[in-house]
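Hi all, long-time lurker, first post. I run a small reading group and we've been trying to get comfortable going from sequence to structure in the token notation. Rather than ask abstract questions, I figured I'd post a concrete chain and ask someone more experienced to write out its structure so we can walk through it together at our next meeting. Sequence below, copied exactly:
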Amino acid sequence: MARKKGGGEESGGSWMDTYGDMVTLLLTFFIVLYSMSSIEESKWAEIVKAFNKNGKTKVDQIVLVVEGDGDKPAENKGEDEPEGKGLTEFDEFYTALVEYLDSQEASAAEVAEQGKDDSEDLSNGTNKENIYLKFQDMIAFEPDTAVLRESSYDFLDFFGEKLSEIEDKLAVVIIKGHTAAYDSSEVDSRILSSERASTIANYLETNYNIEPKKLFPLGLANLYPVADNKSEEGRMKNRRVEISIIGVNSPLIKNDLLKSLIGMDYDYDKILEGNSLAKAVTGDANEASDEKQAEEEKQDDKQKEEE
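-- Answer (accepted) --
Happy to help. Here is the structure in token form:
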């Protein structure tokens, strides 16, 4: 009698087991990949910026919404900055300076600072139109002379070009020359520092047409050291140039603080009307001459009437 084959079920297991194992392995593989990956913040910012229609507004995230019937996504417009809070020409000028110093890998001795506004009320002017610069290596002179070193011209040309772009917004550029106290030096430090500051002012006036009355060079000799003059390292730090750039909307201008500081006399309202600082100076010789002539004519008319 023939024996029946045993086992009514199909041998070798179910195909579902193999499929399940494969999916599990794939899931594990992608989890490992994700755990090994990282997103650099700067690259993410560039990606987000690429979706931003206006490069000057802030976008923190990409959000796609649908318009109309949903045929296409709406443009991501970011978070619009409040009116009046955008970048000013002074902001762009300061940013360009900082980027230049970074590109030149400038040392810590080269400093650029911009004034800050703690209050939302800017009716009295904005401190952001006060920019302070300090240079030790970017602007350097030959020993005991007011002759610029060749290495100084690259920065001065960059600085002069950028300064000329905002000249109509400038009230005054104060250039301060400092020297070090050195016993063996036979040069008068007050004269030397004054000549060095004037050299920079003359260069900006001659090559970039900065209005001369907006350039205010000062020689401060060795009276304001930032380091000990006993060491060569300290003396190098003390040999420096400091530049203060003051805009027409600075509180120093609006409050007439600059008048008492450096003795300049100007009419703020005329500056805001777009006139140059030279024309706004109330002691202008031509204006004074016209006023004197008008006064003399009045006196003559008065005498004629009395006669």
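A couple of things your group might point at:
Residues 89-263 form a domain with the 60s Ribosomal Protein L30; Chain: A; fold (CATH 3.30.1330.60).
The beta strands are 66-67, 72-73, 111-114, 130-135, 170-178, 215-219, 240-247.
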